[in-house]
Design goal:
By secondary structure, this protein is mostly helical. It is 48% helix and 11% strand. It has helices at residues 2-21, 38-49, 95-104, 107-110, 119-124, 137-142, 148-157, 160-176, 182-192; strands at residues 61-66, 72-75, 81-84, 90-94, 114-116. The protein has a three-stranded antiparallel sheet with strand order 4-1-5. A two-stranded antiparallel sheet has the order 2-3. The relative contact order is 0.09. The model is unreliable at 4-25, 32-41 and 43-50 (pLDDT under 50).
Length: 199
């Protein structure tokens, strides 16, 4: 009898230890772990994508060039008159005046009539949103030496006024003999739907 009692006691103790080690079914621990960490990760990602724009003094002088092959006239916010008599002519303007053009008279930029080449000014005033498809002056001059594919790609995206300017420039170059590439002439004619050579 002593042997059986001795054997049963350790087995009961072992069974009690097993029950104590098992987790209680009423507690649901996994639900509280993930949600608190998510916003912190999102904030970190947002901070890395924010780009700080340069703040320019409104009185800073910026060189503005005409991208139109005719005369461009612009009356400033204060009533002063700016005149660019031909393509490539430069005028000085303040950052404040350029900001006004971007907000109230953006067609001067989106049509390519006026062009700013300073990358710092372009970024600070976000001018690239207006002139994404506008050809720079060097691109307009170089279009006549470009491949047929480049001519078609650039002119098909260019704003209407620049397309007309390129057509007028092409006619002048054909007359003075500086444009005699037939493939370039045909590409310009087909893209712009114009006749450059009078028959």
């Amino acid at each position: 009898m002593d042997d059986t009692t001795k054997k049963e006691v350790p087995e009961e103790e072992a069974a009690q230890e097993e029950v104590a080690v098992q987790p209680a079914p009423a507690k649901e621990a996994p639900k509280r772990t993930v949600k608190a960490a998510k916003p912190a990760a999102d904030k970190t990602a947002t901070k890395t994508t924010i780009k700080v724009r340069e703040k320019l003094d409104p009185n800073t002088i910026v060189c503005v060039r005409s991208g139109h092959d005719g005369t461009v006239r612009y009356r400033g916010k204060d009533g002063s008159m700016y005149i660019w008599e031909s393509i490539g002519v430069e005028q000085d303007m303040t950052v404040a005046e350029l900001r006004y053009i971007a907000s109230a008279k953006s067609k001067f930029l989106s049509e390519g009539w006026l062009q700013v080449e300073d990358p710092l000014v372009i970024e600070a005033l976000q001018l690239d949103r207006f002139c994404r498809n506008v050809m720079r002056l060097d691109e307009m001059e170089g279009i006549f030496d470009a491949s047929v594919e480049d001519i078609t790609a650039k002119l098909s995206k260019a704003p209407p006024e620049q397309r007309r300017s390129v057509a007028r420039m092409a006619r002048q170059k054909i007359q003075d003999g500086s444009l005699n590439r037939l493939d370039a002439i045909r590409a310009i004619e087909e893209t712009l739907k114009v006749n450059l050579i009078e028959q």
